[in-house]
Amino acid sequence: MKISIHNYIYLSLLPILILKFNIANCQIITSSNLPIVIINTGGITIPDEPKIPAGFKIINNGPGLINHINDFPNHYDGFCGIETRGNSTQGFQKKTYSIELWNSDDEDTSSSLLGMGKEEDWILHAMVIDKSQVRIPFSFYVFQRMGHYASNWRYVELIIDNDYRGLYILCEKIKRDDDRVDIAKLDEDDIYGDSLTGGYILRLDWLGYYSQGFSSNYNSQSGYYPLFYQWYYPKAENIQQEQEDYIADWFSYFESAVFSNDYHNNLGIRYTDYINLNSFVDFLIINEISKNSDGYKLSSYLHKNRDKNGGKLNMGPIWDFDQTYGVSEVCSNYDPTGWTYLQNQSDCEDLMSMPMWWQSMMQDTIFQNRLKCRWQNFRTTFLHEDSIFNWINSDTALISDAKNRNFTRWPHIGQQIWIEPSPIPQSYSEEITVLKQWISNRLDWLDSNFPGNCDNDITIIKEQVVKKELSKVTDFLGRETNQTNQTNQPLFYIYDDGSVEKRILIE
Q1: 97 near 89, Cβ under 8 Å?
Q2: In 10 A of CB 181, how many CB atoms?
Q3: Fewer beta carbons below 10 Å: N end or C end of the chain?
Q4: Which residues contact 265 (CB under 8 A, 6 or more apart)?
Q5: pLDDT tens digit string along 393-415?
Q6: Which residues, at least 6 apart from 432, have a Cβ–Cβ distance to it below 8 Å?
Q7: Over the stretch 461-495, which tens digit does the pLDDT of each residue have?
Q8: Residue 438 CB contacts under 8 Å (≥ 6 apart), including other chains
Q9: Residue 431 carries which DSSP code?
Q10: 3-class SS at 458?
Q11: Strand partners, 226
């Protein structure tokens, strides 16, 4: 539900209120090397929902230039809807916010903010749990370097109603879009043919009364309840029955292959034919290197494009990386040893949304070998310890003044604000030292424990050349067909020796 901007007379005064910003009321900030985001609600408390209208402005004079709070809002000057965001983090005074850009007619409007892709939906992430202020940006950076989409971000300083709120990252909300999750738009009339096969974004997350989606044929890691896939795109209210049936059937074939003894389903199709293997491997790596307490089970996204555009299932984008890199006692995150994908620690919760795939995949030699190769390659480049520490040093230098103001406004350094392990670092520099030491120890452990043999990584499994006869042709859901001339749809040629060939006739 959107509250009309025009219901608030004060909004007509926003340009005056902002341009005449009272420095005395701010007390902490007068200028910054980072962009300054200024939001004015007219003194209205920002709720969890619905979004309320506000003025939204960004001062950004450009790289290397200083931004002053009384400067003209030269980068963006308009309106937005704003609400608080998060689950457990809602209890902190420093809030994370969801932003939707609006025009003066209460309509969504898109804009490219601070060089990021043009869109209307954005997140102002508070990064409360992470006193280093670099864990989430670093995780986004790593997943991008792996070759996948992750939210772009920019460090900013935030002011709401003349009140300095601290250091934030302005980042992209996960959405289907050309500049975000680049998959086909799935409309309500896309209920047959190739258009039915994508695009879908699903989520594994908190299960509640209003969770909508479909159940797996297999239990979650809880052992008692089936894994539940939640609708993300399209929204639950827009999903057609044909679309729901298609993707549920698709997952049943994928999962039956994952959990079979030889990793093939009853159609003879291997689970690796259903997925972008690198995306699954890399998703595991980023969750393991960070030992993400929420990894795999909360804010975990999957997406599938149409068959003519590849049609394979991808893990990601990543999200929810605040309880990472030793910052929390939850799921023994503080301990740089052990596997996160097992989630077998006594303090781990939310296993109802934890897939069992990972345990099965980690026993597969093809998955292991690909994992080993990717890991060895990354460790010589952007996951080399020197490269990681240089990245951390660069970002901490960029936010040096801003983090001082942030921790003046929110005096969290040296304080127990979450479930941090003891002893709690008593200075920011100590926070960074502890972070680096944990990362170093984690890298050493993973180097010694990642399975696989890179020399045996086989991208394409070659079948032994023998005389064989065609038994049948099926589509991706196992339906037998004789329409071998259909275009832009994968067909599986199943032979009497059990081998399978995947063919696509491109129009």
Answers
A1: no
A2: 21
A3: N
A4: 253, 254, 256, 257, 271
A5: 999 999 999 999 999 999 999 99
A6: 132, 392, 396
A7: 333 334 566 767 777 566 677 777 666 567 766 66
A8: 325, 326, 334, 336
A9: H
A10: coil
A11: 219
